[in-house]
Amino acid sequence: MKKFFHLDKGAWIEFGLATVLMIVNVILALHLPYYTEHKRYYESNAYVVVLIGAFVLYVLTLFKGKKKSTNDIAVVLFGFFLLWEVSYKVGWVHNDLLIPSPEGLFHVFIEKGPEISKDVWGSIQLLFWGFLLAVVFGTVLGLLAGWIPRVREVLLPISNVITLIPPLMFSAYMIMILTTFRQAAIAVIFFAVFWPTFQGTVQRVGQIDPQITQAARTMGVGTFGMLRKVIFPYCLPGILMSLSKSLRGAFMCLAGAEMLGVNLGIGYFIEKYKSFADYRCVLAGIVTVGVVTTVIDLAVNKLKKSLIHWEY
Amino acid sequence: MSELQVNTEEKTEYKIEIRNVSFDYVQSKSKYEALREIDLNVKAGEFICILGASGCGKSTLLSLLSGLNRPKSGEILVDGKKIKGPGTDRAVVFQQYSLFPWLTVKGNVLFGIKQSGKKLGRKERNALAEKYVESVGLSAAKGRYPSQLSGGMKQRVAVARALALESDVLLLDEPFGAIDPKLRLELQELVSKLCTEHKKTVVFITHDVDEAILLADRIVVMEPGRIKSIHKVSMPHPRVREELVGTTEYEKLHRQLIMAFYDQVAERIDAGVAL
After folding, report:
1. Which of A101, A140, A178, A188 could join A183 via S-S bond, C-beta 3.0 to 4.6 A?
2. How many angstroms separate the first and last alpha carbons of chain A?
3. What pTM was computed for the model?
4. According to CATH, where is 1.10.3720.10 located in chain A?
């Protein structure tokens, strides 16, 4: 509480500006009629809820007092929303088929809420299995190859060639050899994550300080004890660090994988409404991907912080 | 029969026997002879300092004793058994950076206890770890990670972890080389005390003449590739630096060592000039 009220003068002004932007925006959304007739999205106040939700999040972040940029981000964000809103209400933008109004966009989440949540859940399942398998196998094989030169000399050249092939290129073949589209989608995500994880782990094992492994050897640690008790924990922060990076890779592939013909998933949602030329839903799908990715990314970072208490 | 007797006698007399050991570093085509036909015996409970300038092969000798490297020829026996690789019968303290960064002070010591192969319950292990942490004076910092420790504290932990292995033999490779002189003295006294307490047979590598005199029962001066001379230090333990300095025995020994030490350095500088 103290910190919040001890914002300096500039920060208070910025906070005030962001608040004013938000309030003007809410009033416009609630009371000012559209310049053109776009009444059809008017039934819900989803947009107002989003604005107020964003504002609450902003105040909470400010309350925690962690980052100095919070105010700047809020001003830019609410400014952008206001500009978007105003351009509709004043009539700068007419074609709301290609560029939907903010009300129209966020109304999709009310209109198609169950569908979106079902699709998000479907995507997360695909992602989870592909990602989990890839990280486990990639890390285990990477540790082995990193520590045992003979394994490395076989696997590393192979992986160097394979990583150059975009994983989506496998997709057509995957559909042929795997029984369901779901499996094919999981396989594509697997290959998108597996090889980078493998290579990253090999590299990290190679960078381990030889004094550490020597010390372990003088304490009678054998090959597999070394992998389990020394090399794995030593490499763990690096592995977790690369998780969020490979997660992004997995998301990229997810959309592609879902176009393989899976009838579930947020990529499928976007693809479907694209072919219906309903760009309002396409944009809503894109926003959803952004939100879900961010939430997963934050969760991974949280996991990293709770697991790693040490530095090198 | 008589041969057997001789053998057992040897076993009881020497803890470590270095017999005719040579070692080369091979780098692509060039070969560098690091050690040439070294012979040295260490009695049980003896504290040996190996003194030499950098590049004389003293760290190589320690790596052979630890088992991280194998001699090209000759053999090293511990308790009459030939060394075949690293083992928990010999604990090693390295110059620096050998603590496990993901484990706390206590965790590092626990690692040593677990590796010692003793069958202990969780509580006993913990108690033992606390004991060793306390013996190096770090009880207050037992929950800290190595990155949060100063250099001197890190080496204290390394010593505690080595002690936790409960081996008879302790090998130290210039453990205090990177630590400032005042702290170094504290650590030297600590190691001297702990090694006497735990009756360790110690091989301690150093390039510091004073450190060697303070700690050793015998000082082995090395010149590149071989042993130059061995000096016995008969002053009683525990030794206190201030009390040593100024005594005739200390001065005499110090002079001898400096002569042996700098003689070889001078030779090498001459050789360099000649080149």
Report:
1. A178
2. 35
3. 0.78
4. 113-307
Residue of A nearest to B166 (CA): A219
Six-digit token pair at B229? 């001379």
What residues of chain A lie within 8 A of the CB of B161, using their CB?
219
What does the alpha-carbon distance between residue B31 and residue B16 come to, in Å, rounded to a whole number? 28
B245 Cβ contact list (under 8 Å, min separation 6): none
For domain B2-89+168-274, is the CATH number 3.40.50.300?
yes
ipTM of the complex in this document: 0.83
Domain with CATH 3.40.50.300 in chain B: 2-89+168-274
Give the β-pairing of B14-27 and B73-78: antiparallel
Contact B102 A212 (CB under 8 A): no
How many Cα atoms occupy the beta-carbon half-sphere of A45 within 13 Å?
12
Distance of CA A45 to the CA centre of its chain: 27
CB contact under 8 A, A310 and B145: yes
Token pair belonging to B193 = 């005390």
The nearest alpha carbon in chain A to B163 belongs to A219
Tokens of A93: 């933008």
Exposure string of B166-182, with b = 16+ CB inside 10 Å and e = fewer, is: bbbbbbbbbbbbebeee
Q: Decide if A230 and B100 are in contact by the 8 Å CB cutoff.
A: yes
Task: Give the class (CATH, top level) of A113-307.
Answer: mainly alpha
Angle, helix A46-64 to helix A70-90, in steps of 10 degrees? 160
Encode pLDDT of A93-127 as tens digits: 777 677 787 878 888 888 888 899 998 898 888 88
Chain B residue with CA closest to A214: the answer is B68
